Structure formats: structure tokens, C-alpha cells
Amino acid sequence: MNDNNQNSPSKFCAGCGHPIVLLALGKTLEEMGLSKQAVLGLDIGCSLLAINFLPINTFHTHHGRVSPTMVGFKKARQDSICLGYTGDGGAYAIGLQSLLHSAKRDEPITVLVVNNTVYAMTGGQTAPTTLIGQKTITDPEGCKSAPILGPELIRQVANTKAFLARVAVNDIKQAREFIKKAIETQQAGHFSLVEFLSFCPTNWRTKGRETLEYLENLKKVFKIGEI
Amino acid sequence: MVNSRQFLTGSEVFVRAAIDSGAGFMFGYPITPASEILSGWINSGKKYLQTEDEIAAGFALCGAVLGGEKAFTATSGPGNILMQDGLSMAEGMRLPFVMVAAQRGGPSSGTVIYSQQEVILSCFGGNGEGMRFVYSPSNLSELYKFTRKAFNDAWHYRFPAIILTDGYLLKTKGVIDFAKIGEIKNISPRALVPKDSVVHWPNIYTFEEELYQEIKLAKDDFEKVAEDIADCESYQTDKADILLVAHGIVGAAAKEAVDELRKKGINAGLFRPITLRPLARKKLDKIAGQESVKKIVVVESSLGQLARIIRDQIAPEICAEFAYMQYPGLGIETEAIVDFVAGLRVVSGEI
What we know:
heterodimer; A: Rossmann fold; 18% strand; B: alpha/beta; Rossmann fold; 15 strands
């Protein structure tokens, strides 16, 4: 078991949205006094780079398998705050079956989905969230099908008390507010999921202002707010 | 006082063993012939989760043991394939992942009762090196005993443990005398993700050397543990001419065949591996290396999965000839083994 140096530099690309989400999470946990009870499971993809980002218990799982792993952890340790951290591919493609069933059963876990509309770690392939017309490595002519709207889809099977929301990483205040509500929902015994619309300048091939504009554009398709 | 002798099915025996081992939770997805374990566990009032598939059962099990719960799953055939995903994580992180694999005929959905075709899958499935304990019980009493042992070994040595059985043994109903098995002490589970300190626990690495160190450590530990846990039954092997090698319920038939063959004047013996991983190779070499041994007959309900393991692990200087009795997915009875071995001797002009 490695205990990586917490002071090692972040491994995320410059301009990546992940560190914003993780900092929002870390600060919210600290504020709620829950850092000790928190357990962060990581999906594989860019999410895996969060292994030593926060001073809380953190471990890797497999690609698409973070929700069932955290479901199992929660069964063993009901007093823990179980957080599953994943990308949009892990959540809505390979891991969708488990995610939907976790919501259907109203498992008291919190899933944090970082949606940047591509498979970023593997080089920018089409994801379940890729927009119509968006060009990717695997859709050089542009994606032809509409993106999956995760929280809206999950709403169809989730308990009415489940907290489902979407926020963008350029609104840190709302991001922290939603993380807090999601954790409180877990504490009340229900499923929660927050999707973060996030930057990926590396795979979007955007710079500075373009990146921000790209994100703003995403908000037209992916509705911000509680769902 | 409860009568120590009870009339139970294999599934009931397993459930009793899991309860007696102190297991608190089962994750499972229904599949024949392992479903009775899930329903039996539920009927005994224990905590469980019926997952959406075997992949989820495997990972939920990983999560539960990370949290410190003694837990397990049960599956078969196509489910065993899906379970390899979670088992691979368990192998990578040295998690005490306990599973019953109730073999069914394959490939594909195959059949549901009799088979020894999940040997290679259970021993070496996944993108790893097969660092897991695999027990192959030959009767109900061993099913109980080695289930208890699997839980203890998994938590003590921190390797995944698989009880490899089949539909036939799980559906067999027979008398089991718990007094004869005696008392077995349980190893207590512990929270692998600690409650009072912080760990950052990876299973994916940036550098080849980091992963290599982890594998090397696991390999050294596995080899050291093998000395303690590798187990086998040696029956009438002293100065035997013909050495039968068989495991599980085929091993039970082979044991009876040894007696029948000896009545016919054929000097047969049996090496029955109880752990397929790690294999009791020193014992195997000692028995198979005797000058008296002319033939090693591997008997199995598969096209050579046990034979592959035996040939791979046996000392290379052992020069007895191999012969193979292979009926993939078919039941193998004592008489068939006796006829096969007697036939071999006729062909080679020894009778």
C-alpha cells in the first residue's frame, strides 16, 4: 500500500477543471467537519490523478466501477461519507448500469461526475456526453447522436429524496453548495449525484477565453441547477 | 444440544460455513447453480445485497472488505467471468475477497451441474499472475472445512480466496458431522481503509518499477504462504505404479477407483490437490518422483485444465509418462476411471 506524498504536485494538465472540483470538495468537507469520515473512491480515467490530492482516505477502483465499490464500502461502514469520483465515460457509459441501479435502490452514496464531453485520459474519444457535431478522435466527422443527460436520466429511476444536480466549474460557490447538499442527502440516507461541467483545454484544443466560451456553450445543452 | 450430525445440501453447508466464519455480508447476482447460496444466506437472516450483475457484486465486495467487513460472493460460469474484474482489483490491492465458484459446463452458458472447466479461470483469470488461493473440496465435509479456511487465509494473508466447487456438490444432500471437523478459530477482519489515519491507496501506477515492486512483494509473500497453505491428499501413493491425479468430486471418484484397482492387483495411488493455487508441488514431486511411478494419469471433467497446472508445476526431471482421462463437462464415475486405467495397462502390455 503506497501512501503517496501529499505534497507532490498535481498531475492534472494545465487548465484542467478537476483541481477546481477537488478543492471545492476538500473545502466543503473541511467546513462540514467530515474530512475524517470521508472516503474518496476514484474511477479510472483522469479521475485517477486525484489519488493524493486531498488529505482524506482515497483509493483507486476500476474504470466504471466506482459506484458499486462505494456501495459496498458504505454497507461496511455506515458512518463513513462515501464519495465516488468519476468522469462522464465511467459514469454514463461503462458504469451506467451500476450507477442507475445504485440510484434505483437509493444507495446512500454521493457520486461526483466530472463532465468534459470527452474521454480525456485516452486522448479525446467520443464520450456519452459528446455534443452533436462535436469532432473527436473517434468521430472525425462529428458526433451524430445526442449526449446523455446524466442527472435527468437518473431522475427517472431515483427516489424523490435523491439529490441530483449539475453545476459548472466556473461557479465555485454553487459547486460547494451542491456538494454540501449532496453530502447532507447521503447523511439522510439517500442517493446523490452532482455533475460538474468541466474544462478540458487539452482535448478541446482551446486556449484561455476559448475554453471559457466552450464551457459556457455547454450550459446551453446541459442545464445547470437541481434536477 | 444440537445434534452434530446434520443432513444438508452443499449450498446449506456453505452458508453454515460462511456464518460460522463470521461473515456479515453477501453480495450476489442469481445464477444457477449458485443461487441457493444467495437464498440460503437470506433465509438465515443475514445482511445481503442482490446487485445488478456480477461485476457490481465483485466491486461491492471489494468496497466492503476495504471497509473492514468480512463478506463474500457466490457465482458460476459466465458470472465467474464477470467476477474476474473485481478479482483483478482484489489481487492488485491484496484484498480478502472470498468467492464460491460453483462450476458449470462451458464454454458459453453451457450446462449447470457437473464440470471442472473453471479451473484456469478461477486460478489465473484476470490480467494478473494468479495470486489467489483456490480450494477444491471433494465432499460436503471438506466444503465446510475449506470454506472456513478460505475466510481465515484470505484475511490472515491478504490474498483473494476462491472455493472452487460445482453444481453437483452444492446440490448433493448428505450427512455432515460437525463434531468430526472440530473447532476452527476465526481470524478477525480489520478496516483496511483506516478510521483514524489517512491512506492514499493506488492500484494504477505511473512507472513500471512501481508496479514491479508491488508484484514482486506479492509474489514473495505468495511463495512464502504456499509453504503454510498448499494442501493435498495423498492416498495409497507409497510405491505406487500408477499415480492418479484428480481434484474435487472427480478426486472423490478417483479415490474409490484406487481401492477398486488395487483389488484387481493394479498398484494405483492418488495425488489429490486440495489447493489448486498454490499447488502442493513439493509433495507432488516427492510422490510422482518415486521410481515405482510409471504413469501419471490426470483425470478431470475438462480438456486438460488440471493437467496444464500439474505439468507446469511438476519438477522437470520427473520422467513418468502422462496419460489423460478427460470428459469435459461430464460426470466421471469410479467404474469409468477403473476401466480407463485397466485399459492403459492392456495397451502397454502390462496385463
